[in-house]
Structures are given as C-alpha cells and as structure tokens.
Design brief:
Blueprint: E1 3-4, E2 10-12, E3 23-29, E4 48-56, E5 59-64, E6 76-78, E7 93-98, E8 108-115, E9 128-133, E10 138-144, E11 153-161, E12 167-176, H1 181-188
Parallel strand pairs: 1-10
Antiparallel strand pairs: 2-12, 3-7, 3-9, 4-5, 4-8, 6-7, 8-11, 9-10, 11-12
C-alpha cells in the first residue's frame, strides 16, 4: 500500500513480517515537454536529474548521479540519465539502494531532484518521486512534484539508519535553487 508523504513524515522500511527491506528504488518520472512551433523547435526539453548523496553522519562520502552511476562501494546504482522525460506515469530515472550492502559508516542516503535545463517545477507536468520495494515492486511512498513552485531543485527524501539495525525513510520535500546536486549541498545540511 502506497503512502502519500507529507514533508517531515517518517516511515519504517520494515516489511509487515518484521524483516527489513533489502533493496529500495527511488523512481523519478515527469512528462516530456509538449512540442510547439514548427517541428517542435521552440520548446526546450525538460531534463530532470535524480541523485543520491551518501553521508557518514553529516559528512558527504559519495554521490550517485548521471555522471557517476555506481557508488564507490557498489551499494547504490543509477539506472541511467533520461534527458527528456516520458509520459509522466512511469519512472524515467531510477536509483537502486541495496540497504544490506551499504557500508556501516554510511548513516543516510539523501535523494535529490534538479532541473538541469533550468525549468522550474511549476513548469514541469506530472512529476513524481517514489520509493519502491524493488523485490516486490510495491510502492511504499510517493511524493508529487507537480505544481512544485518556482524552484529548480528539490531535496526529496532520505533513507537513514534508525538506530535499531534497520532503515527508515523521511520525506523532506524542501525546495532549492539548483541545476545539479552540488548546488543543493548547503540546502541539504539542515536535514542531516
């Protein structure tokens, strides 16, 4: 059962059977820009980028994004860059996190979305970010970006070690002015 998350809301990543999820997928989807003008030449394509930043407490340790598709330890993997979006209902970019393989010193993985081509989220249609149990394809949580305002970046959510040996997820939903994950680093700090 999917949960529409509100900012700041936390959910456990434990299955109903009590065991922890092993692989979660953060999916990002958005609708491609409609073509206008002669041969569609007047419309700039929308290129949103999903990134995952790995932190050891409050210190950045690694990042997975379109130019570094696999974390140095291999536990986080980006499936590839989509430069134009799709129909808006499917995931256009995905990041898989093998929670069982994340090194012990990594305490949280922060997911961000940025508009590389500079459109604000107010201009992006049918955009979503969701967290999925990759083993069952069950959607665990969803955050809608549509009507997201004048910003070009969003700190979406984080998965974090919950102190009991398991993992939890917190929806963040904080806007930022960013074309890349690097632009968001100062805005991420308060959520660590």
């Amino acid at each position: 059962m999917s949960v529409n998350l509100a900012k700041g809301q936390r959910v456990s990543l434990q299955k109903s059977s009590g065991e922890s999820l092993t692989v979660v997928r953060m999916g990002l989807g958005w609708k491609a820009a409609p073509k206008r003008g002669l041969f569609g030449s007047r419309t700039r394509q929308i290129d949103l980028d999903a990134s995952a930043l790995l932190y050891a407490e409050k210190t950045p340790s690694d990042v997975v994004f379109f130019q570094h598709l696999v974390s140095n330890d291999g536990s986080v993997r980006h499936t590839g860059d989509n430069l134009i979006g799709g129909a808006g209902s499917e995931d256009d970019e995905s990041i898989l996190v093998d929670l069982a393989q994340v090194p012990a010193h990594i305490t949280q993985v922060v997911f961000t979305v940025s508009s590389y081509t500079g459109q604000s989220f107010a201009e992006v249609q049918q955009a979503h970010c969701r967290l999925v149990d990759d083993g069952t394809d069950q959607e665990l949580a969803r955050y809608e970006l549509t009507g997201g305002g004048p910003h070009t970046g969003q700190i979406m959510a984080k998965v974090y070690r919950d102190g009991s040996g398991g993992w939890g997820m917190q929806a963040i939903g904080a806007p930022a002015k960013a074309r890349t994950f690097q632009d968001m680093l100062p805005a991420i700090e308060p959520y660590l």
